[in-house]
Amino acid sequence: EEKLDPNAKQGGAITITYKDDVATLDPAIGYDWQNWSMIKSLFDGLMDYEPGTTKLRPELAESYEISPDGTTFTFKLRKGVKFHNGREMTADDVKYSLDRVTNPKTQSPGAGFFASIKGYEDVAAGKATGLAGVTVVDPSTVKIELSRPDATFLHVMAINFSHVVPKEEVEKYGADFGKHPVGTGAYKLAEWTLGQRLVFERNPDYWHKGLPYLDKITFEIGQEPIVALLRLQKGEVDVPGDGIPPAKFQEVMADPAQKARVVEGGQLQTGYVTMNTTMAPFDNVKVRQAVNMAINKERVVKIINNRAVPANQPLPPSMPGYDKSFAGYKYDVAKAKALLAEAGHPDGFETQLFVMNTDPNPRIAQAIQQDLAAIGIKASIQSLAQANVIAAGGDKAGAPMIWSGGMAWIADFPDPSNFYGPILGCGGAVAGGWNWAWYCNKDLDAKAAKADSIVDPAKADERYKLWGEIYSKVMEDAPWAPVFNEQRFTMRSPRMGGDDKLYVDPVHIPINYDYVYVNDVQ
Amino acid sequence: MTSPIAPDAPLAAPVIAKRRAGVLGRLLKRPLAVIGLIIIALTVAGAVFAPWLTAYNPNEQLFDGLTLEGSPLPPNAAFWLGTDLLGRDLLTRILYGARTSLIIGVVANGAALIIGTLVGVTAGYFRGWIGGALMRFTDLMMAFPALLLAICLAAVFQPSLWIVAMVIALVNWVQTARVVFTETSSLAEREFIDAERTIGASTPRILFRHILPHLLPTIIVWGTLGISTTVLLEATLSYLGIGVQPPTASWGNIIFENQTYFQAAPWLVFFPGAAILALALAFNLVGDALRDILDPTQRGRA
Amino acid sequence: MIAYLTRRLMQAVLILLGVSIITFALLYLLPADPVRQIAGRSATPQTVESIRQQLGLDQPFVVQYWRYLTNLVSGDLGRSYIQRSEVTELIVARLPASLLLMVGAILCEVALGLTMGLIAAVKRGSVTDQTLMVGSFIGVSAPQFVVGLLLLYVFAVQLGWFPIGGYGTWRHMVLPSLTLGILGAGWYSRMMRSSMIDVLRQDYIRTARAKGLARGAILFRHALPNAILPVVAMIGIDIGLFMSGIVVVESVFGWPGIGQLAWQAIQRVDIPIIMGVTLVSACAIVLGNLLADIVAPFIDPRIKLR
Amino acid sequence: MTAAAGTKPGAAPAAPQPDTGGPVLTVSGLTVSVRGDDGERAVVADLSFSLARGETLCIAGESGSGKSMTSLAVMGLLPQPQARVSAGSIRLGDLELTTLGERRMQAIRGNRVAMIFQEPMTSLNPVLSIGRQLIEAIEAHTDLSGSEARASAIEALKAVRIPEAESRLKQFPHELSGGMRQRVMIAMALALKPDVLIADEPTTALDVTVQGEVLELLRDLQREQGTAVILITHDMGVVAEMANRVIIMRNGRMVEQGSVADIFERPQVDYTRELLAAVPKMGTGRANAAAKPAEPAKPAAVAQVRDLHVRFDLHGGFFGRVTRRVHAVEGVSFSIAPNETLSLVGESGCGKSTTAKALAGLLPYSGDIAVGERNLAGLGRDERKAVRRDIQMIFQDPYASLDPRMRVGELVAEPLLIHNIGTPKERTDRVAALFERVGLSADQMERYPHEFSGGQRQRICIARALALRPKLIIADESVSALDVSVQARVLQLLKELQNEFGVAYLFISHDMAVVENISDRVAVMYLGQIVEMGTRDQIFANPRHPYTRRLIEAVPVPDPARRRPRFARLHSEIASPVRRVGDPPAKLDLRDIGDGHLVAAH
Ligand SMILES: Nc1ncnc2c1ncn2[C@@H]1O[C@H](COP(=O)(O)OP(=O)(O)OP(=O)(O)O)[C@@H](O)[C@H]1O
Ligand SMILES: Nc1ncnc2c1ncn2[C@@H]1O[C@H](COP(=O)(O)OP(=O)(O)OP(=O)(O)O)[C@@H](O)[C@H]1O
Ligand SMILES: [Mg+2]
Ligand SMILES: [Mg+2]
């Protein structure tokens, strides 16, 4: 059993604010910034990560076994785990949950993660209602067979979509299950006033004895980040869910008392510019390389108040497989110009740069625009609502360049493969796909498949190295110009305790609700 | 029997043979109106001569335009109105932004006013099915969320200044139409309109010469208030990707981009805001003066 | 009266029908694909198609609209694509807050605007008049976001008179209503001034003065009811304008109204919510105008309900 | 401004004056100036008079001579911002009014000095019930309780002979006929029982029968309360009937002052003599008739009206259905020959203006109206424009029928412009000539309608109608607001035009003397129908219908010596043209009693 924090006392309540509505708390559906970690606290999966890290550990599974060929996973379930409705969780629930999330009727945005499970195609096509690969061996044992070896499968068993739900409750509420979530998690939903607040209460029967620390968490919805910060400064709020708004960042950092309560951490995020490799002139690799060299990443970072670090490859530094030694393309205007000339555009060309319209993305786009102008590329900016940018990216002739900020990629799980599939692989380069660079390199796809078939945890490093190579090769073809990796800055009220890393937990965003506590309980 | 009747002899007062001065001439006699005209002239001049008035390029993100932490600079000797979040000279952006904002606030708003007035007058004057149909259409447009229309248009067209101008004209006429309709229908009942009909005045003549002048005060109120509203609306629409795209400046979008920073960098909101206010006020001063000048019952007012 | 109401309500239904057709058509033409928002990044084309079928989005426009309409008649606005909840439920949860804010804002702007306009008209040309004019233009020209934050900062954070955002008591209502009211007050005061000036020179005002009535009685009993008519018409219009202001103000003050719902839905092409909110606000506007028309004859007996 | 020598600033304004015989109101050296485009000019100059308790002072004189301005100056209600008292003093008892602050003036207005305005149509607040307007006036100056104030309001309404006074309190001005509104205004002033009552042409909107009653009422008030009355009127008959003393004004100055007998019998000044000479007298018309050349063989009629009906639907009841109708015009037929003047007379609200408007094409009607050879129904746009040219109408309310935002010169030139007559220069000349012919000066062309007096506006309307030299002019109460001398000249002008161009007139008037003077034929209307029609001589020498007889008898005689002791009051209620749907009034049969003299059965 895990050691508990000796300083932590149980009890107390905290308040967290969010701007946007919480859409749903159905683990099969929720895929937003705010509900992601809420769901993690209401539900559990077979696997999880150690708090504040990216290290996998079993959760509802007590233990697991992987067959030598890496295609069969056998999970032994923890006993005595109860749903919030009091019923004990069994292997049937696990199977039910996986069948449910892959069933097209559920309309889960995460169904694709389970594609490696045997029988997935039939379920996706509506030919079967259950995954053939998932079998209940006995009430506390589940066997999952894969159609191909998948090194990321344990991560998949840790993402929300695979979290276990009780069949009877799902059937009771039907489509409204997301508003009446019942899981096995540390908290249970006590109140949900639409548009105003959600209240989580400690689950007294939580299987993880001693957790959670807090009695109650109130999420207040619809709060402008600036106002949330004002309230934090007044002591009405404990954590601003949307972080420190850019407009207030300098002010907070200039005040030592406030600065002391800011926690900085890495994020599994990369901001990049995609270049449509099927569209002239970006079909020429030299042009794409020139763009990579033309962007003054230092300055872009400065514009967002140094809240990021310049990036030179797709993977963020805290992701396994990140290549520290990789040099990337240095900022070099002269060389960029030369490359452009070589590519037959000595005088540059005109193009478009799409960007999502929320601050600071248009500003970043303008900085990039100016850098491109320095080598003769006149990019006009199209600052649009998120949905419209996504639509343009998924259209082969839609967008020559897109600044990814605000829309794409915060990793679903901490594995290098997560940065490849839909956004750089051939599978995503289809109409309506997410590979906005329309980059398709069959060799790399094969290599990626090879890397993901190295299932043995002992060989993880070998696998990461392979992925590192893949991304190096990607950067040679330069479908992206990585610009920076955003840093997270979370702030907490003085009364909040717990390790700093809980506040920048890479998977529990913004904080790990199960492990934080308050200092002022008696 | 043909001797004309002796006219009333004018009493005491010397009849100065001073014929009416032109409207402009009379405007120029009012200090407040002159101030208004000057502000408008300055704004137009600023917009037209922007390249000669400032040493900076409106879109150039100056190296020395930001602090080391990336904060904008407050007003100083080099940047009179400070710099923005990307290190661009704010004064220059406001000058160039006047081009966009004048087109929106004056041209688009004016177009909306004209459409609204025409629809309102027509509907108010012609009672029958024309009026009914026009008013029902106006009701429909009024009930229809403008923002949605704008977004959809944006999706269909390439975003540009003229699209946003068109959208503003298309959505803003409705309110004017409704107000003008109400007034016109009561004016149409007045006896002097009947009197015009008996002398054979054509419908356009009645509408333009006899009804329109009475609507002037209302039109002036709506027109001048519309300036601020439309300039700010442009920013919202641009934000949704319909209007001018960055880095093109407009007063509205300078405010819009920077409004969350109003505590950290108040000049970014204050100066463009003041520009909008000044323009709207200037038009109002001129409008008020015009209203007085064109309203004969107010003559003799200092 | 009943005949009039029936006729107007029938017209209202037609207008709403028109609004629903146009909105539906515009959303249909929108290039952004809601299915892709639902399906997520990892979805296979197969899944995407399956979802599209389930939502009926593969059907021709007419079929889709007809289905929407038939559901609408039974009070079903569909389910949100993103939130997956009943749109009716979402709107019902948020509508009261918006209506409350609307009432508060209208009270604020009418009270402020009418007073300002009245004073300006009476003191026409004076320094007071000029000051009020500048004031009303500041109200109209100031971005609401900034006004809201400023009020919040001064009255809630610094002075602590009101809560920093939120919803519940009348104290929560003051600042958001005021923020919206300041803009509206600018409009109302200009309208009021204009019509008041007109009324003040009418013969019946002279009659009232000849009776030796006190200034207050002349202004409030004789002039105001005559001058207020255009302002009443304006309140009907106002509800429409109000819908755009509400988005900003609700987010600044964390006010749980439909503005925020609408804005999020627009950003994410959540068509059922957009449709629902559009129809609800269209209803509000139509009813507002109807109300203004019904009230008018009570203010001016010459007006007949037609 | 005059040095306010005798003013006691702190004096209590409302102290009742002991009947010392001292004047209630003293005006001395009063000068009122108005500011226009061409600088300031005086419209009342150096006017002095005084008024004793219980006295009636009539101010008569030329239209535009400053009568209304004088009374407004007394009330402290000169039109702002143009007009001001530039010299002289107005003293109420001991109190100087010209320098009195607005607040103290408030206490005086209504309480000690009340006024009935010249334009009754626009002087009532359209959105307040008449009860409200009456009661508040009473409450402002007495400390009666609400119900007492209400009771005295009802009493005041009864006094001006408004039937069903109690239920009328709830009605709004637009629900009353013009004459009733006039009487409400009078009631309001009377209810206040002021020391001084200024009545500016209080009976212009009233037909002779009601006029008589109202005048009688003023006299009652004087007898009972000792009220001093300033009566402004151009009707010398009314002056003779009412006045103790008379002031004659011209061009802003008083030209003569004296007792009523002196003025009528021993006028000192030419102008007064001219005025008196111009007074139309019953019976003189017939004498003049010989001057008119004998009619040639009957030519085609300019206008022919057959069986005209105009009804206004009143929507009412819970379902908004048409429940009642105003039967404003019920089967009127007449024709007007070129060179002929047909007069339409009848009590207020009997449908005269409505008939005129239907003829001018301003109202939907049923029946036939033919102009020249053409039936108005089913004419195309161009033809209608041509017909319009031939028929011109002078509206009853001159102020309301002039676009207040146009200069009067432009207004008069407008018909010429519309019909493309002449060059701009020619048009200006023609307008200037017209101005002079109606007794206005050409330099007034640059002014706006509100800058004129009631009578001047009426003349502008006349000039406008004459501009096109139409074949038929409909003149609705077109000379009612003119002083007798101008009236005479305008009537003369109309006759001249008739002789020169053969214009025909449809002449609508309350004033029987004028009618008798100008008409060739007369039609008497009652409740939307013609009750008697014939040549002037037939009607005036031989009135057959009782209503016609009453009208003729009610005409006041412009001779103080022949003052009637007391005007007979009517006790029947005024009949109403409003009827339930499906209950049209019975059609009257007109019988020819010889030579085309038509009389309804009675
Ligand atoms: N608002 C005004 N501005 C300028 N001049 C005016 C104004 N009102 C009246 N006048 C002028 O003042 C003069 C006197 O007008 P007033 O109304 O006193 O005449 P009146 O004697 O009452 O005539 P009437 O019998 O025609 O009513 C007229 O010459 C008129 O043109
Ligand atoms: N628009 C209208 N709606 C309803 N009733 C009307 C309307 N116009 C006139 N009436 C009514 O029609 C009747 C005739 O009105 P009209 O104006 O013709 O009277 P008149 O003979 O000209 O009276 P006056 O001598 O007072 O001018 C009146 O009872 C009047 O109240
Ligand atoms: Mg007068
Ligand atoms: Mg009449």
UniProtKB/TrEMBL annotation, chain B:
<protein>
    <submittedName>
        <fullName>Peptide ABC transporter permease</fullName>
    </submittedName>
</protein>
<keyword id="KW-0571">Peptide transport</keyword>
<keyword id="KW-1003">Cell membrane</keyword>
<keyword id="KW-1133">Transmembrane helix</keyword>
<feature type="transmembrane region" description="Helical">
    <location>
        <begin position="264"/>
        <end position="286"/>
    </location>
</feature>
<feature type="transmembrane region" description="Helical">
    <location>
        <begin position="32"/>
        <end position="53"/>
    </location>
</feature>
<dbReference type="GO" id="GO:0015833">
    <property type="term" value="P:peptide transport"/>
</dbReference>
<dbReference type="InterPro" id="IPR050366">
    <property type="entry name" value="BP-dependent_transpt_permease"/>
</dbReference>
<feature type="transmembrane region" description="Helical">
    <location>
        <begin position="215"/>
        <end position="244"/>
    </location>
</feature>
<dbReference type="GO" id="GO:0005886">
    <property type="term" value="C:plasma membrane"/>
</dbReference>
<comment type="similarity">
    <text>Belongs to the binding-protein-dependent transport system permease family.</text>
</comment>
<dbReference type="InterPro" id="IPR035906">
    <property type="entry name" value="MetI-like_sf"/>
</dbReference>
<dbReference type="GO" id="GO:0055085">
    <property type="term" value="P:transmembrane transport"/>
</dbReference>
<keyword id="KW-0472">Membrane</keyword>
<keyword id="KW-0653">Protein transport</keyword>
Automatic annotation (TrEMBL), chain C:
<dbReference type="GO" id="GO:0055085">
    <property type="term" value="P:transmembrane transport"/>
</dbReference>
<keyword id="KW-0472">Membrane</keyword>
<feature type="transmembrane region" description="Helical">
    <location>
        <begin position="12"/>
        <end position="30"/>
    </location>
</feature>
<keyword id="KW-0813">Transport</keyword>
<dbReference type="Pfam" id="PF00528">
    <property type="entry name" value="BPD_transp_1"/>
</dbReference>
<dbReference type="GO" id="GO:0005886">
    <property type="term" value="C:plasma membrane"/>
</dbReference>
<feature type="transmembrane region" description="Helical">
    <location>
        <begin position="169"/>
        <end position="188"/>
    </location>
</feature>
<feature type="transmembrane region" description="Helical">
    <location>
        <begin position="273"/>
        <end position="299"/>
    </location>
</feature>
<dbReference type="InterPro" id="IPR035906">
    <property type="entry name" value="MetI-like_sf"/>
</dbReference>
<dbReference type="InterPro" id="IPR045621">
    <property type="entry name" value="BPD_transp_1_N"/>
</dbReference>
<keyword id="KW-1133">Transmembrane helix</keyword>
<keyword id="KW-1003">Cell membrane</keyword>
<dbReference type="InterPro" id="IPR000515">
    <property type="entry name" value="MetI-like"/>
</dbReference>
<keyword id="KW-0812">Transmembrane</keyword>
<comment type="similarity">
    <text>Belongs to the binding-protein-dependent transport system permease family.</text>
</comment>
UniProtKB/TrEMBL annotation, chain D:
<dbReference type="InterPro" id="IPR003439">
    <property type="entry name" value="ABC_transporter-like_ATP-bd"/>
</dbReference>
<dbReference type="InterPro" id="IPR003593">
    <property type="entry name" value="AAA+_ATPase"/>
</dbReference>
<keyword id="KW-0547">Nucleotide-binding</keyword>
<comment type="similarity">
    <text>Belongs to the ABC transporter superfamily.</text>
</comment>
<dbReference type="GO" id="GO:0055085">
    <property type="term" value="P:transmembrane transport"/>
</dbReference>
<dbReference type="GO" id="GO:0005886">
    <property type="term" value="C:plasma membrane"/>
</dbReference>
<dbReference type="InterPro" id="IPR050319">
    <property type="entry name" value="ABC_transp_ATP-bind"/>
</dbReference>
<feature type="region of interest" description="Disordered">
    <location>
        <begin position="1"/>
        <end position="24"/>
    </location>
</feature>
<dbReference type="GO" id="GO:0015833">
    <property type="term" value="P:peptide transport"/>
</dbReference>
<protein>
    <submittedName>
        <fullName>ABC transporter ATP-binding protein</fullName>
    </submittedName>
</protein>
<dbReference type="Pfam" id="PF08352">
    <property type="entry name" value="oligo_HPY"/>
</dbReference>
<feature type="domain" description="ABC transporter">
    <location>
        <begin position="25"/>
        <end position="276"/>
    </location>
</feature>
<dbReference type="Pfam" id="PF00005">
    <property type="entry name" value="ABC_tran"/>
</dbReference>
<dbReference type="InterPro" id="IPR013563">
    <property type="entry name" value="Oligopep_ABC_C"/>
</dbReference>
<feature type="compositionally biased region" description="Low complexity">
    <location>
        <begin position="1"/>
        <end position="23"/>
    </location>
</feature>
